[in-house]
């Protein structure tokens, strides 16, 4: 099926998104979760077709990769055809010249001696002429190849573009000489044959007929067609920042076919997922009445099997803040701050998503930071990726990017050698002189300086089209400890002052908090490097329900609130919790809210009990969460009291005890609230974040545990009071 689609895309001019959309729309409508939703198929089809542009815009990145692969494949197909045509022209002209010359000589000899023409002699003469011509072309090609190899340092280094130029020159010069020679002889021998056949007598002087020049001109015109066609192909390749020589050097049909099949499969998957997610949203919107049932019945939830967000992104307030700040800045740096799992990476990649159909979108690059980094290696890696981005975007600095890529990948070595030798009989005298120069690797300051100059030229070129160059640095908060992250940022900020170039980074809360708490008048590394900060907050309940609605059809509100309260509004944990809940539910059996809550709470208890990392005190206190220690009734509120008694009132052990006790109290609160008796009226009240018993407060308490335990205990106490639950013991004095 993929190969059929590939052939179709190469022949038909219809855009590939339109074909994929129609094909995958039919498949999406046949999904079980869509069929069982109760929403009419015609309505969903009409809604999807009306929002076609918006759905396809979600997969723009995959579509761009497919565009590049298809365009590259078309260029290679056209190049292959032109090379075959050039070979066919040379072969045709050589056969015509060799055959006509052999026929003319044989005919002249036969007419002179009044005998018949020997076909064997004509064939032999033609083969001899072809052999001589072939040997001549091969000798010229070999000499040109050797001379080019000696003169070109890039060809000796194996640079693909140089090797392609070597092939092109080595084949082009013999082609020109052979076709010129054949054109001259084609203007002589065929006319001689015609004249001798017409007058039935041998021609005394070879090439005496004047009208043979028209045959020469026609042959020259035929021989000029392949080079002219290759020239047009070179112009088309240059518009894609590719060179004809490079295409010749890397011409590999099978590899290109596999690459195109891969990007085509990725595009199909992205379009299919975007369609299914859109239908889930539309089904949820069509159901005007919210489902407050405390029973969960599952038909199918394939959306939860996706471990990553992929091409989907649920907009939040941080998206708007980042868009406003970026429009008001012509360079500098913006930090995305927030706890892990809050969606900083997804926000960064969505902001840096390039859309060639929207000229106002920035030219963007996103690179993750390795946990163990080397400043020089990372800067070279960033430089190399930037060169690839410029080449793919077909900017005027693409040729410069190719040169930088070669200097990054290869260590150039140049050798010059001269030799003189003379001898007579058994005596020989020789002398030899050689010089070798090896390029010294660039130092880190030189790399930074070269990168800044290249960034400046690229950014200024984009600025002419009112576009911005954006460099995203992701997963900076993975570097531990925060001091190491500050060291990395100090190294990176050397390129932050490039005009028209914006850097967007994801940083940890710990590092940002240290910068904000720095003494007055003292500038921290983050404070001096970052111009603006965008705080990425956890999801509110409404956004969390919208995210779940893109993955699950018909999820009742109590279960969405349960997942939200247990995850603290963190998108990654929200999907993990929902995935765990659906793993307990089978297609044949309905699960009640209390059963699902118990399963999820027990899952969290087991996770805490199995904590092996950290200090000995933490591991010891975590063992109190074991099932045998809890007893049959699983009294989590009593577990909190026990942890406080075991931890003591002072020291690091008491602080760890407060954290674990709050975890126990939070799980106990969740288990007491989400029961089968949870009424619709109470759910509506708790869905309001301003209400004392709100689910938002319960999720906020989850996030405060471990970072602000006193505040978390106070939040839990207010929630329990509003739900008329037993009061919690006070926090031990510090």
Task: Give an overview in words.
This protein is of the alpha/beta class and about 725 residues long. The protein has 4 domains: about 1-55 and about 255-290, no CATH class; about 85-250, no CATH class; about 315-385 and about 440-535, Rossmann fold, CATH 3.40.50; about 545-720, no CATH class. It contains 32 helices and 9 strands. Helix 19 (about 480-490) links the parallel strand 6 and strand 7 (about 500-505). Helix 16 (about 375-395) packs parallel to helix 18 (about 445-465) and helix 29 packs parallel to helix 32 (about 710-720). The longest helix is centred in the first third of the chain and has 54 residues, at about 60-115. The two termini are about 70 Å apart. Residues about 1-15, about 410-420 and about 515-520 have low confidence and may be disordered.
Question: What's the helix and strand layout?
Answer:
Blueprint: H1 2-11, H2 16-29, H3 32-35, H4 41-50, H5 52-57, H6 60-113, H7 119-151, H8 153-157, H9 160-186, H10 189-199, H11 213-238, H12 244-249, H13 253-286, E1 295-296, H14 317-327, E2 332-337, H15 344-351, E3 363-368, H16 375-393, H17 398-409, E4 413-424, E5 427-438, H18 444-463, E6 469-474, H19 482-492, E7 501-507, H20 509-516, H21 525-529, E8 532-535, H22 541-549, H23 557-567, H24 571-583, E9 591-592, H25 593-609, H26 616-622, H27 627-630, H28 636-647, H29 651-673, H30 680-686, H31 695-704, H32 709-722
Parallel strand pairs: 2-7, 2-8, 3-6, 6-7
Antiparallel strand pairs: 1-9, 4-5
Helix pairs in contact: 2-13, 6-7, 6-9, 6-10, 6-11, 6-13, 7-9, 9-11, 16-17, 16-18, 22-23, 23-24, 23-25, 23-31, 25-29, 26-29, 28-29, 29-32, 31-32
């Amino acid at each position: 099926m993929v190969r059929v689609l590939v052939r179709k895309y190469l022949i038909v001019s219809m855009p590939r998104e339109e074909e994929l959309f129609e094909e995958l729309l039919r498949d999406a409508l046949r999904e079980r979760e869509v069929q069982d939703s109760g929403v009419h198929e015609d309505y969903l089809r009409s809604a999807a077709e009306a929002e076609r542009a918006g759905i396809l815009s979600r997969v723009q990145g995959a579509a761009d990769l497919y565009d590049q692969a298809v365009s590259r494949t078309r260029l290679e197909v056209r190049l292959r055809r032109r090379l075959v045509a050039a070979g066919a022209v040379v072969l045709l002209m050589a056969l015509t010249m060799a055959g006509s010359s052999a026929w003319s000589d044989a005919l002249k000899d036969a007419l002179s001696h009044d005998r018949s023409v020997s076909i064997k002699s004509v064939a032999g003469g033609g083969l001899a002429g072809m052999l001589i011509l072939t040997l001549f072309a091969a000798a010229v090609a070999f000499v040109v190849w050797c001379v080019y190899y000696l003169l070109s340092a890039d060809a000796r280094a194996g640079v693909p573009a140089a090797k392609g130029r070597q092939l092109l020159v080595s084949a082009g010069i013999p082609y020109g000489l052979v076709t010129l020679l054949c054109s001259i002889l084609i203007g002589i021998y065929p006319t001689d044959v015609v004249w001798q056949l017409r007058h039935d007598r041998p021609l005394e002087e070879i090439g005496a007929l004047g009208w043979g020049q028209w045959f020469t001109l026609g042959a020259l015109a035929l021989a000029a067609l392949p080079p002219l066609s290759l020239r047009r192909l070179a112009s088309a390749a240059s518009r894609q920042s590719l060179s004809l020589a490079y295409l010749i050097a890397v011409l590999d049909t099978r590899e290109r076919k596999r690459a195109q099949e891969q990007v085509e499969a990725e595009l199909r998957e992205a379009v299919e997922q975007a369609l299914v997610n859109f239908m889930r949203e539309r089904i949820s919107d069509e159901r005007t009445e919210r489902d407050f049932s405390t029973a969960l019945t599952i038909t199918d939830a394939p959306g939860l099997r996706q471990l990553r967000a992929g091409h989907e992104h649920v907009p939040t307030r941080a998206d708007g803040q980042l868009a406003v700040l970026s429009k008001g800045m012509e360079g500098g740096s913006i930090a995305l701050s927030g706890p892990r799992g809050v969606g900083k990476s997804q926000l960064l990649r969505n902001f840096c998503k390039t859309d060639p159909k929207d000229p106002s979108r920035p030219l963007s690059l996103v690179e993750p930071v390795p946990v163990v980094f080397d400043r020089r290696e990372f800067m070279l890696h960033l430089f190399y990726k930037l060169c690839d981005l410029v080449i793919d975007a077909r900017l005027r600095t693409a040729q410069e990017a190719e040169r930088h890529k070669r200097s990054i990948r290869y260590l150039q070595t140049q050798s010059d050698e001269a030799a003189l030798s003379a001898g007579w009989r058994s005596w020989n005298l020789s002398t030899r002189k050689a010089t070798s120069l090896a390029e010294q690797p660039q130092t880190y300051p030189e790399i930074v300086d070269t990168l800044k100059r290249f960034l400046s030229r690229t950014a200024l070129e984009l600025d002419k089209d009112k576009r911005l160059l954006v460099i995203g640095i992701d997963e900076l908060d993975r570097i531990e400890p925060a001091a190491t992250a500050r060291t990395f940022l100090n190294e990176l900020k050397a390129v932050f002052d490039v005009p028209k170039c914006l850097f967007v980074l994801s940083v940890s809360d710990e590092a940002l908090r240290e910068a904000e708490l720095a003494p007055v008048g003292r500038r921290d590394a983050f404070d001096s490097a970052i111009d603006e900060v965008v705080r990425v907050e956890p999801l509110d309940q409404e956004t969390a329900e919208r995210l779940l609605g893109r993955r699950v059809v018909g999820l009742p509100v109590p279960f969405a609130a349960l997942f939200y309260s247990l995850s603290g509004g963190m998108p990654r944990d929200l999907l993990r919790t929902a995935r765990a809940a659906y793993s307990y539910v089978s297609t044949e059996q309905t699960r009640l809210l209390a059963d699902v809550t118990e399963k999820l709470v027990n899952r969290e208890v087991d996770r805490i009990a199995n904590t092996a990392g950290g200090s000995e005190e933490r591991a010891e206190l975590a063992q109190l969460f074991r099932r045998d220690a809890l007893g049959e009734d699983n009294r989590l509120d009593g577990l909190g009291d026990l942890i406080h008694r075991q931890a003591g009132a002072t020291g690091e052990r008491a602080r760890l005890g407060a954290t674990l006790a709050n975890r126990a109290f939070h799980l106990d609160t969740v288990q007491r609230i989400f029961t089968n008796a949870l009424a619709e009226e109470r759910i509506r009240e708790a869905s309001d974040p301003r209400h004392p018993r709100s689910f938002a407060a319960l999720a906020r308490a989850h996030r405060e545990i471990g970072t602000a335990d006193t505040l978390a205990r106070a939040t839990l106490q207010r929630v329990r009071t509003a739900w008329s639950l037993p009061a919690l013991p006070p926090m031990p004095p510090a």
